[in-house]
Task: structure prediction
Amino acid sequence: MKKLKILILSDYAYAKGGAEKVAITTATGFAEKGHEVKYFSAVGPACKQLMNSKIREVICLGQKDILDNPNKINALLSGIYNWKAVKRLKILFKAWVPDIVHIHSLSKALSWAVINIIHSYNIPIIYTLHDYGLVCPNMGLYNFKAGKNCDLYKPNDRFKCLMTNCDKRNYAQKLWRWVRFMINIYVFKVAKKIDGFIAVSNFIGNLIKNNLKTNKPIKVIYNPLEEIDKNTNNNSYKGKNQFLYVGRLSKEKGIELLLEAVEEIDAQLVIIGDGELMGYCKEFSKKLGKGRIKIMGYQDKSIIEKEMKKSIALVLPSKCMEPAPLVLNEAAINGLPSVVPDHGSSIEFINNEKDGLYFRAGDVNSLREKLQMLKHNPLLTKKLGENAKEKMVIRNHNLNEYLSNVLKFYLDIMNVKI
Result:
């Protein structure tokens, strides 16, 4: 098998979210298989997984992302055109030209301008669709002001999109994001310079295919999972009295909806994650009292798995349409069923009443009903958890399969015969 020179791009050199986690796993996985891999990022510090791997070089610019940059003028400008990233890429390509570039994220720090530079060197570009940034200025298909999903991402609705104040901060931020989006699509023409897209779910793949003017291939490759221990299971649900939430604490993730639902259920809620609603969650927990809500903040994988084994179910109450929540599969690996809204890609990963339950998106009564159902029926919960684990064993979305599928896509784009 041909060994490739692969450049992985990601805003962050650590696993801030799912996209970065997959980027790091992709880079270290290919390096382990003998490919010559370099990792290029803007925001550090570089994590141990990168630094202790066989990756040839980890390049981190030591920048702040757009939101954390104290110099707001610099943030606005670099968010559209990150000169430092462009300059460093040019220096890299003078000494080392990759066979292919795989981009996982660039909207929060690196900027879309880097695609222009890579394209100018005639290097094939693969872009993984972790979010909706190629069709939606705020990248979420979500109106944060109205608290509901938005359908103004279609090409014919650009002006309506401009006139809608949907940003979670203010309309000035929305205007900047809309201008950046229009520059990316119509000036930089980034969609035309990307040679192939990897979709992390059929949902986002179809949405991008139907709304992005491109004739480039879109390949669905599910995010990689760790090896599954087939001999362990979350068998005992009797006597368990906690539900688990893992994710960002923000309005679009539905954490407020979940708190309201749990308030009237005789069960504990364990919250793992951080975000702008941390203060709200703490105040709600204090008001409810009796240790009903346990807020743990950010935790590593081992702690999350420990809490999964103590839980009745994982609850993903998102109001927004998730592209591909990694945590659902991670729960299933641990024999834990999930309760999810009936929209977005969640229904692609969970089968209603077989390995989890759907509730009507945004409906607190529907969510409360499903949680009560699981709490009072441990046999049902046990069955759903066992089915979830069995499904993951059958699907076998392990790292080797993922890397094999990605490599085949690389070679197809490069027009290299295996």
About this structure: The chain has 17 helices and 15 strands.
